[in-house]
User: What shape does this take?
Amino acid sequence: MTSTKTKALAIFVVTSLLLAIIFCVVPINLFDSQIHYIEPDRDYIVEAPLSLANYIGLYTDESSMEFVESFALTPKGWFMLVAFIFGFPALLAYRIYLKDRK
Assistant: This one.
């Protein structure tokens, strides 16, 4: 039989990978970002939620990216990324570890 720690670690890794794949493939605009636009007559930054799929080039077309210079996650966006991809699986694995330990 596998040990409790091994089972919890496996659940953490599998859940983290599954959530990372979902967030990188499915266009869920969930993570707070800043979009830097440069147009011929002005330069401005807009805060908007973006999907991680946008960061790897999925679901972006040339017309929507015409004046976009760059985009980046805000500190809140980074916190949400870490919380969803690592925090939730860690809590799930810890719960299973405590349940199996009894």
Remarks:
- The first helix runs from residue 4 to 25.
- Residues 4-101 form one domain.
- The chain has one domain: 4-101.
- The CA atoms of residues 22 and 76 lie 20 Å apart.
